[in-house]
Specification:
88 residues, mainly alpha, single chain, 44% helix, two-stranded parallel ribbon, Arc Repressor Mutant, subunit A
């Protein structure tokens, strides 16, 4: 993996059940602010890494995977409604 991918994977792997972050938050925490789209590409290309815990900045679930993402988040106690994570 590239240094960027290693940084992103470390942030994602540190997420705990029920913890939800945005693509931008992952990028910033990994030391790559502004690289939110690259985080999305990483998740698309590298599966795993708790992908279901990452949403858009508005709380929207991943297009095309909303049902599976909602199922996983709800199982972790996250409030999901109409394709979005509700803020707590």
């Amino acid at each position: 993996m590239t240094p960027f991918e290693t940084d992103v994977a470390a942030v994602l792997d540190a997420l705990r059940p029920g913890e939800v972050v945005s693509y931008g938050e992952v990028a910033a925490e990994a030391g790559h602010p502004g690289a939110h789209r690259a985080v999305g590409r990483f998740l698309r290309d590298h599966g795993g890494h708790h992908w279901w815990r990452v949403v858009t900045s508005t709380g929207r679930l991943v297009p095309g995977n909303e049902v599976e993402q909602a199922r996983r988040l709800i199982a972790e106690g996250v409030d999901v409604h109409d394709g979005r994570v509700r803020p707590t």
